[in-house]
Amino acid sequence: MSITAPADWKSAPAPSDAEGWIARAAEVAAVLASDAAARDKAAATPYAEVRLLKEAGLVTLLGPVEHGGAGQDWPTAYRVVREVAKADGSIGQLLGYHYLWNWAARLVGTREQWEHVEAEAARNQWFFGGAVNPRDADVVVRDEGDTLTFTGRKTFSTGSKVSDVTVLEGVLEGTDDHVFAIVPSDSEGLTFHDDWDNIGQRLTESGGVTLDAVRVPWSAAAGYVDKRFQPRVYNTLNVPTIQLVFVNFYLGIAAGALETAAAYTRTKTRPWLHGGHERAVDEPYVIDVYGDLTAKLWAVEALADAVAAEGQKLHDDPDAVTETARGEFEVRVAAVKARATDVALEVTNGIFEVTGARATASAEGLDRFWRNVRTHTLHDPVAYKRREVGRHVLTGELPQPTWYS
Protein backbone atom coordinates (compact mmCIF):
# COMPACT_ATOMS: atom_id res chain seq x y z
CA MET A 1 0.00 0.00 0.00
CA SER A 2 1.47 3.30 -1.12
CA ILE A 3 0.08 6.82 -0.85
CA THR A 4 1.77 9.28 -3.20
CA ALA A 5 0.73 12.88 -3.78
CA PRO A 6 0.42 14.08 -7.40
CA ALA A 7 3.63 15.78 -8.55
CA ASP A 8 1.89 18.93 -9.75
CA TRP A 9 0.84 19.87 -6.21
CA LYS A 10 4.37 21.14 -5.61
CA SER A 11 4.83 22.88 -8.94
CA ALA A 12 1.39 24.40 -9.48
CA PRO A 13 -0.11 27.28 -7.43
CA ALA A 14 -2.41 26.30 -4.59
CA PRO A 15 -6.15 26.62 -5.29
CA SER A 16 -7.48 30.13 -4.80
CA ASP A 17 -11.22 29.62 -4.44
CA ALA A 18 -13.78 27.20 -3.05
CA GLU A 19 -14.20 25.30 -6.32
CA GLY A 20 -10.46 24.82 -6.55
CA TRP A 21 -10.21 23.44 -3.03
CA ILE A 22 -13.12 21.07 -3.58
CA ALA A 23 -11.37 19.86 -6.74
CA ARG A 24 -8.16 19.40 -4.73
CA ALA A 25 -10.14 17.30 -2.23
CA ALA A 26 -11.39 15.16 -5.13
CA GLU A 27 -7.76 14.60 -6.15
CA VAL A 28 -6.99 13.48 -2.59
CA ALA A 29 -9.96 11.13 -2.76
CA ALA A 30 -8.67 9.62 -5.99
CA VAL A 31 -5.36 8.80 -4.30
CA LEU A 32 -7.11 7.30 -1.27
CA ALA A 33 -9.58 5.29 -3.36
CA SER A 34 -6.84 3.30 -5.09
CA ASP A 35 -6.31 1.06 -2.06
CA ALA A 36 -9.10 2.07 0.33
CA ALA A 37 -10.40 -1.45 0.88
CA ALA A 38 -6.93 -2.83 1.65
CA ARG A 39 -6.13 0.01 4.06
CA ASP A 40 -9.44 -0.50 5.82
CA LYS A 41 -8.64 -4.18 6.27
CA ALA A 42 -5.12 -3.45 7.56
CA ALA A 43 -6.38 -0.77 9.98
CA ALA A 44 -2.87 0.67 10.33
CA THR A 45 -2.25 4.07 11.92
CA PRO A 46 -2.88 6.55 9.05
CA TYR A 47 0.36 8.53 9.18
CA ALA A 48 0.67 8.55 5.39
CA GLU A 49 -2.94 9.61 4.94
CA VAL A 50 -2.52 12.61 7.21
CA ARG A 51 0.70 13.51 5.43
CA LEU A 52 -1.29 13.47 2.17
CA LEU A 53 -3.83 15.89 3.66
CA LYS A 54 -0.99 18.22 4.63
CA GLU A 55 0.69 18.02 1.23
CA ALA A 56 -2.65 18.82 -0.41
CA GLY A 57 -3.05 21.94 1.74
CA LEU A 58 -6.36 20.72 3.16
CA VAL A 59 -5.17 20.81 6.78
CA THR A 60 -4.84 24.62 6.68
CA LEU A 61 -8.03 25.21 4.66
CA LEU A 62 -9.65 27.38 7.35
CA GLY A 63 -6.41 29.05 8.45
CA PRO A 64 -5.63 32.75 7.94
CA VAL A 65 -4.07 33.56 4.57
CA GLU A 66 -1.43 35.81 6.10
CA HIS A 67 0.00 32.82 7.98
CA GLY A 68 -0.15 30.30 5.14
CA GLY A 69 -3.76 29.15 5.38
CA ALA A 70 -6.33 29.11 2.58
CA GLY A 71 -8.80 31.43 4.31
CA GLN A 72 -11.82 29.40 3.23
CA ASP A 73 -15.21 29.20 4.97
CA TRP A 74 -17.17 26.42 6.63
CA PRO A 75 -19.40 25.54 3.63
CA THR A 76 -16.20 24.85 1.68
CA ALA A 77 -14.73 22.82 4.54
CA TYR A 78 -17.86 20.67 4.69
CA ARG A 79 -17.71 20.00 0.95
CA VAL A 80 -14.03 19.09 1.25
CA VAL A 81 -14.84 16.61 4.03
CA ARG A 82 -17.58 15.13 1.86
CA GLU A 83 -15.23 14.65 -1.09
CA VAL A 84 -12.52 12.96 0.98
CA ALA A 85 -15.06 10.70 2.69
CA LYS A 86 -16.26 9.39 -0.68
CA ALA A 87 -13.01 7.44 -0.86
CA ASP A 88 -12.27 6.89 2.81
CA GLY A 89 -14.78 7.60 5.58
CA SER A 90 -12.13 7.38 8.28
CA ILE A 91 -9.95 10.06 6.71
CA GLY A 92 -13.01 12.21 6.07
CA GLN A 93 -13.84 11.99 9.77
CA LEU A 94 -10.28 12.78 10.82
CA LEU A 95 -10.22 15.86 8.59
CA GLY A 96 -13.64 17.06 9.75
CA TYR A 97 -12.78 16.67 13.42
CA HIS A 98 -9.49 18.46 12.75
CA TYR A 99 -11.40 21.43 11.34
CA LEU A 100 -13.63 21.60 14.41
CA TRP A 101 -10.78 21.36 16.92
CA ASN A 102 -8.74 23.89 14.95
CA TRP A 103 -11.77 26.21 15.17
CA ALA A 104 -12.36 25.45 18.86
CA ALA A 105 -10.06 28.26 19.96
CA ARG A 106 -12.26 30.71 18.07
CA LEU A 107 -15.44 29.17 19.43
CA VAL A 108 -14.35 29.20 23.07
CA GLY A 109 -11.22 31.33 23.45
CA THR A 110 -10.49 35.00 23.70
CA ARG A 111 -9.46 36.90 20.58
CA GLU A 112 -5.82 36.91 21.70
CA GLN A 113 -5.93 33.13 22.21
CA TRP A 114 -7.57 32.18 18.94
CA GLU A 115 -5.48 34.53 16.83
CA HIS A 116 -2.34 32.95 18.31
CA VAL A 117 -3.59 29.37 17.85
CA GLU A 118 -4.77 29.90 14.28
CA ALA A 119 -1.50 31.59 13.27
CA GLU A 120 0.64 28.83 14.76
CA ALA A 121 -1.59 26.09 13.35
CA ALA A 122 -1.39 27.51 9.83
CA ARG A 123 2.36 28.18 9.94
CA ASN A 124 3.19 24.73 11.31
CA GLN A 125 0.45 22.70 9.59
CA TRP A 126 -0.76 21.36 12.91
CA PHE A 127 -3.10 18.40 12.68
CA PHE A 128 -5.57 18.46 15.58
CA GLY A 129 -6.93 15.62 17.66
CA GLY A 130 -9.38 15.88 20.52
CA ALA A 131 -9.61 14.21 23.93
CA VAL A 132 -13.08 15.63 24.38
CA ASN A 133 -15.90 13.32 25.39
CA PRO A 134 -17.94 15.41 27.84
CA ARG A 135 -20.68 12.89 28.61
CA ASP A 136 -18.83 11.83 31.78
CA ALA A 137 -16.89 14.05 34.20
CA ASP A 138 -13.90 11.76 33.76
CA VAL A 139 -11.10 14.33 33.71
CA VAL A 140 -10.40 16.57 36.69
CA VAL A 141 -8.67 19.91 36.16
CA ARG A 142 -6.78 21.21 39.19
CA ASP A 143 -5.72 24.79 39.81
CA GLU A 144 -2.08 24.77 40.83
CA GLY A 145 -1.33 28.48 40.90
CA ASP A 146 -0.01 29.61 37.54
CA THR A 147 -0.80 26.27 35.93
CA LEU A 148 -3.55 23.69 35.55
CA THR A 149 -3.23 19.92 35.52
CA PHE A 150 -5.55 17.55 33.65
CA THR A 151 -5.91 14.08 35.19
CA GLY A 152 -8.22 11.24 34.19
CA ARG A 153 -9.22 9.19 31.16
CA LYS A 154 -11.26 9.68 28.02
CA THR A 155 -12.87 6.73 26.27
CA PHE A 156 -12.51 8.28 22.83
CA SER A 157 -9.75 10.48 21.43
CA THR A 158 -10.14 10.79 17.67
CA GLY A 159 -6.90 11.57 15.88
CA SER A 160 -4.69 10.57 18.83
CA LYS A 161 -1.39 9.26 17.44
CA VAL A 162 -1.56 11.09 14.10
CA SER A 163 -2.17 14.50 15.68
CA ASP A 164 0.37 17.23 16.33
CA VAL A 165 -1.74 18.88 19.02
CA THR A 166 -4.65 17.65 21.12
CA VAL A 167 -7.59 19.56 22.56
CA LEU A 168 -8.12 18.57 26.19
CA GLU A 169 -11.36 18.98 28.14
CA GLY A 170 -12.10 18.52 31.82
CA VAL A 171 -14.04 19.92 34.76
CA LEU A 172 -12.35 22.39 37.09
CA GLU A 173 -12.13 20.79 40.53
CA GLY A 174 -14.79 22.01 42.94
CA THR A 175 -16.88 23.60 40.17
CA ASP A 176 -19.10 22.70 37.23
CA ASP A 177 -16.89 24.70 34.87
CA HIS A 178 -15.40 22.96 31.85
CA VAL A 179 -11.90 23.86 30.71
CA PHE A 180 -10.54 23.44 27.18
CA ALA A 181 -6.86 23.70 26.35
CA ILE A 182 -4.61 22.77 23.43
CA VAL A 183 -1.40 20.85 24.15
CA PRO A 184 1.27 19.12 22.04
CA SER A 185 0.24 15.51 21.48
CA ASP A 186 3.59 14.33 22.83
CA SER A 187 3.06 16.17 26.14
CA GLU A 188 4.31 14.45 29.28
CA GLY A 189 1.49 12.58 30.97
CA LEU A 190 -0.58 12.15 27.79
CA THR A 191 -0.84 8.47 26.81
CA PHE A 192 -2.85 7.23 23.85
CA HIS A 193 -4.06 3.64 23.91
CA ASP A 194 -4.22 1.30 20.91
CA ASP A 195 -7.68 0.06 21.84
CA TRP A 196 -9.78 1.27 18.88
CA ASP A 197 -10.97 -2.01 17.32
CA ASN A 198 -14.46 -1.31 15.99
CA ILE A 199 -16.29 -2.58 12.92
CA GLY A 200 -16.13 0.77 11.12
CA GLN A 201 -14.15 4.02 10.88
CA ARG A 202 -11.18 1.80 11.61
CA LEU A 203 -8.49 4.34 10.70
CA THR A 204 -9.70 7.21 12.89
CA GLU A 205 -7.41 6.46 15.84
CA SER A 206 -10.39 6.95 18.17
CA GLY A 207 -9.17 4.89 21.12
CA GLY A 208 -8.88 5.90 24.73
CA VAL A 209 -6.41 8.28 26.31
CA THR A 210 -5.04 8.65 29.83
CA LEU A 211 -4.09 12.03 31.25
CA ASP A 212 -1.67 11.94 34.17
CA ALA A 213 -1.27 15.48 35.48
CA VAL A 214 -0.86 17.00 32.02
CA ARG A 215 0.34 20.51 32.79
CA VAL A 216 -1.08 23.59 31.04
CA PRO A 217 -0.53 27.28 31.83
CA TRP A 218 -3.64 29.19 32.88
CA SER A 219 -3.09 31.41 29.85
CA ALA A 220 -3.92 28.41 27.64
CA ALA A 221 -7.32 27.79 29.28
CA ALA A 222 -9.63 28.77 26.43
CA GLY A 223 -11.91 31.69 27.22
CA TYR A 224 -10.57 32.28 30.74
CA VAL A 225 -9.40 35.70 31.89
CA ASP A 226 -8.02 36.00 35.44
CA LYS A 227 -9.21 32.44 36.02
CA ARG A 228 -12.82 33.29 35.16
CA PHE A 229 -14.57 32.07 32.01
CA GLN A 230 -15.94 34.73 29.67
CA PRO A 231 -19.16 33.23 28.21
CA ARG A 232 -20.67 34.02 24.81
CA VAL A 233 -23.58 32.43 22.97
CA TYR A 234 -21.09 31.64 20.20
CA ASN A 235 -19.37 29.21 22.60
CA THR A 236 -22.32 26.85 22.14
CA LEU A 237 -22.01 26.68 18.36
CA ASN A 238 -19.49 23.84 18.70
CA VAL A 239 -22.25 21.21 18.70
CA PRO A 240 -24.15 22.20 15.54
CA THR A 241 -20.82 22.85 13.81
CA ILE A 242 -19.47 19.36 14.43
CA GLN A 243 -22.86 17.77 13.80
CA LEU A 244 -22.63 19.22 10.29
CA VAL A 245 -19.19 17.63 10.03
CA PHE A 246 -20.91 14.31 10.78
CA VAL A 247 -23.58 14.99 8.17
CA ASN A 248 -21.04 15.64 5.46
CA PHE A 249 -18.87 12.61 5.98
CA TYR A 250 -22.00 10.45 6.15
CA LEU A 251 -23.07 11.89 2.81
CA GLY A 252 -19.57 11.44 1.40
CA ILE A 253 -19.51 7.79 2.45
CA ALA A 254 -22.94 7.25 0.88
CA ALA A 255 -21.89 8.94 -2.37
CA GLY A 256 -18.73 6.83 -2.45
CA ALA A 257 -20.80 3.70 -1.94
CA LEU A 258 -23.07 4.58 -4.86
CA GLU A 259 -20.15 5.41 -7.16
CA THR A 260 -18.29 2.21 -6.28
CA ALA A 261 -21.41 0.07 -6.59
CA ALA A 262 -22.37 1.60 -9.94
CA ALA A 263 -18.91 0.83 -11.31
CA TYR A 264 -19.28 -2.75 -10.08
CA THR A 265 -22.74 -3.09 -11.62
CA ARG A 266 -21.51 -1.81 -14.98
CA THR A 267 -18.58 -4.21 -15.13
CA LYS A 268 -19.26 -7.24 -12.95
CA THR A 269 -22.92 -7.69 -12.00
CA ARG A 270 -24.63 -10.36 -14.07
CA PRO A 271 -28.25 -9.93 -15.21
CA TRP A 272 -30.75 -12.25 -13.57
CA LEU A 273 -31.27 -15.34 -15.67
CA HIS A 274 -35.07 -14.91 -15.68
CA GLY A 275 -35.07 -11.17 -16.30
CA GLY A 276 -34.76 -11.25 -20.05
CA HIS A 277 -31.91 -8.75 -20.24
CA GLU A 278 -28.36 -9.24 -21.41
CA ARG A 279 -26.85 -6.57 -19.12
CA ALA A 280 -27.50 -5.79 -15.47
CA VAL A 281 -27.66 -2.07 -16.29
CA ASP A 282 -30.80 -2.74 -18.34
CA GLU A 283 -32.66 -4.49 -15.52
CA PRO A 284 -35.65 -2.24 -14.61
CA TYR A 285 -35.37 -2.89 -10.88
CA VAL A 286 -31.63 -2.14 -10.92
CA ILE A 287 -32.27 1.15 -12.70
CA ASP A 288 -35.04 1.97 -10.23
CA VAL A 289 -32.90 1.33 -7.14
CA TYR A 290 -30.03 3.49 -8.40
CA GLY A 291 -32.45 6.25 -9.34
CA ASP A 292 -34.21 6.11 -5.98
CA LEU A 293 -31.05 6.10 -3.87
CA THR A 294 -29.43 8.85 -5.94
CA ALA A 295 -32.47 11.11 -5.70
CA LYS A 296 -32.59 10.71 -1.93
CA LEU A 297 -28.88 11.43 -1.60
CA TRP A 298 -29.05 14.52 -3.81
CA ALA A 299 -31.93 15.88 -1.75
CA VAL A 300 -30.01 15.57 1.53
CA GLU A 301 -26.87 17.03 -0.03
CA ALA A 302 -28.88 20.09 -1.09
CA LEU A 303 -30.30 20.49 2.42
CA ALA A 304 -26.83 20.08 3.94
CA ASP A 305 -25.42 22.80 1.70
CA ALA A 306 -28.29 25.14 2.56
CA VAL A 307 -27.85 24.61 6.31
CA ALA A 308 -24.09 25.11 6.01
CA ALA A 309 -24.70 28.48 4.35
CA GLU A 310 -27.08 29.44 7.19
CA GLY A 311 -24.41 28.53 9.73
CA GLN A 312 -21.74 30.58 7.96
CA LYS A 313 -23.77 33.73 8.66
CA LEU A 314 -23.36 33.01 12.38
CA HIS A 315 -19.63 32.35 12.02
CA ASP A 316 -19.25 35.64 10.13
CA ASP A 317 -20.37 37.69 13.15
CA PRO A 318 -19.77 35.66 16.33
CA ASP A 319 -20.52 38.47 18.77
CA ALA A 320 -23.97 38.99 17.23
CA VAL A 321 -25.14 35.39 17.68
CA THR A 322 -28.29 35.32 19.79
CA GLU A 323 -29.81 32.40 21.68
CA THR A 324 -32.72 32.40 19.23
CA ALA A 325 -30.52 32.37 16.15
CA ARG A 326 -28.39 29.63 17.65
CA GLY A 327 -31.46 27.55 18.55
CA GLU A 328 -33.05 27.90 15.12
CA PHE A 329 -29.77 26.84 13.51
CA GLU A 330 -29.54 23.79 15.78
CA VAL A 331 -33.05 22.73 14.71
CA ARG A 332 -32.02 22.89 11.06
CA VAL A 333 -28.85 20.92 11.81
CA ALA A 334 -30.87 18.32 13.70
CA ALA A 335 -33.17 17.91 10.71
CA VAL A 336 -30.39 17.33 8.21
CA LYS A 337 -28.53 15.07 10.66
CA ALA A 338 -31.64 12.87 10.92
CA ARG A 339 -32.11 12.66 7.17
CA ALA A 340 -28.42 12.13 6.42
CA THR A 341 -28.30 9.27 8.91
CA ASP A 342 -31.31 7.50 7.42
CA VAL A 343 -30.29 8.01 3.81
CA ALA A 344 -26.66 7.04 4.32
CA LEU A 345 -27.71 3.81 6.02
CA GLU A 346 -30.25 3.10 3.28
CA VAL A 347 -27.73 3.73 0.51
CA THR A 348 -24.88 1.72 1.99
CA ASN A 349 -27.20 -1.22 2.64
CA GLY A 350 -29.20 -0.92 -0.59
CA ILE A 351 -26.24 -1.15 -2.95
CA PHE A 352 -26.05 -4.89 -2.32
CA GLU A 353 -29.51 -5.34 -3.88
CA VAL A 354 -28.10 -4.19 -7.22
CA THR A 355 -24.57 -5.55 -7.17
CA GLY A 356 -25.30 -9.19 -6.46
CA ALA A 357 -24.01 -11.99 -4.27
CA ARG A 358 -20.45 -11.87 -5.60
CA ALA A 359 -20.19 -8.24 -4.49
CA THR A 360 -20.02 -9.43 -0.90
CA ALA A 361 -16.50 -10.79 -1.50
CA SER A 362 -14.07 -9.38 1.03
CA ALA A 363 -11.75 -8.26 -1.76
CA GLU A 364 -14.40 -5.86 -3.08
CA GLY A 365 -14.68 -4.07 0.24
CA LEU A 366 -18.23 -2.82 -0.38
CA ASP A 367 -19.14 -3.61 3.19
CA ARG A 368 -16.84 -0.87 4.52
CA PHE A 369 -19.26 1.86 3.52
CA TRP A 370 -22.09 0.42 5.62
CA ARG A 371 -19.76 -0.44 8.51
CA ASN A 372 -18.41 3.11 8.57
CA VAL A 373 -21.83 4.77 8.55
CA ARG A 374 -23.30 2.30 11.03
CA THR A 375 -20.45 2.85 13.47
CA HIS A 376 -20.47 6.63 13.59
CA THR A 377 -24.24 7.20 13.35
CA LEU A 378 -24.43 5.69 16.83
CA HIS A 379 -22.57 8.74 18.18
CA ASP A 380 -25.87 10.12 19.52
CA PRO A 381 -29.42 8.77 18.98
CA VAL A 382 -31.02 10.19 15.86
CA ALA A 383 -34.44 9.99 17.54
CA TYR A 384 -33.40 12.89 19.75
CA LYS A 385 -32.57 14.93 16.66
CA ARG A 386 -36.06 14.33 15.31
CA ARG A 387 -37.44 15.30 18.72
CA GLU A 388 -35.70 18.68 18.52
CA VAL A 389 -37.35 19.32 15.17
CA GLY A 390 -40.78 18.03 16.22
CA ARG A 391 -40.94 20.06 19.41
CA HIS A 392 -39.98 23.21 17.55
CA VAL A 393 -42.66 22.62 14.91
CA LEU A 394 -45.41 21.91 17.47
CA THR A 395 -44.59 24.32 20.28
CA GLY A 396 -41.91 26.68 19.01
CA GLU A 397 -39.48 25.31 21.60
CA LEU A 398 -35.79 25.72 20.79
CA PRO A 399 -33.19 23.17 21.90
CA GLN A 400 -31.23 24.18 24.97
CA PRO A 401 -27.48 24.06 24.38
CA THR A 402 -25.99 20.82 25.69
CA TRP A 403 -23.00 18.74 24.61
CA TYR A 404 -25.30 16.98 22.13
CA SER A 405 -27.81 19.66 21.06
From TrEMBL:
GO terms for molecular function: 3-methylbutanoyl-CoA dehydrogenase activity; flavin adenine dinucleotide binding; monooxygenase activity. Residues 28-117 form the Acyl-CoA dehydrogenase/oxidase N-terminal domain. The keyword rRNA-binding does not apply. Residues 245-379 form the Acyl-CoA dehydrogenase C-terminal domain. Gene3D superfamilies: Acyl-CoA dehydrogenase/oxidase, N-terminal domain (1.10.540.10), Butyryl-CoA Dehydrogenase, subunit A, domain 2 (2.40.110.10), Butyryl-CoA Dehydrogenase, subunit A, domain 3 (1.20.140.10). InterPro entries: Acyl-CoA_DH_C, Acyl-CoA_Oxase/DH_mid-dom_sf, AcylCo_DH-like_C, AcylCoA_DH/ox_N, AcylCoA_DH/ox_N_sf, AcylCoA_DH/oxidase_NM_dom_sf. It holds the Pfam family Acyl-CoA_dh_N. The keyword Flavoprotein applies. Keywords: Flavoprotein, Monooxygenase, Oxidoreductase. Transmembrane segments: none annotated. One of its GO terms (biological process) is L-leucine catabolic process. It comes from the Bacteria. This is FMNH2-dependent monooxygenase. The lineage of its organism: Bacteria, Bacillati, Actinomycetota, Actinomycetes, Kitasatosporales.
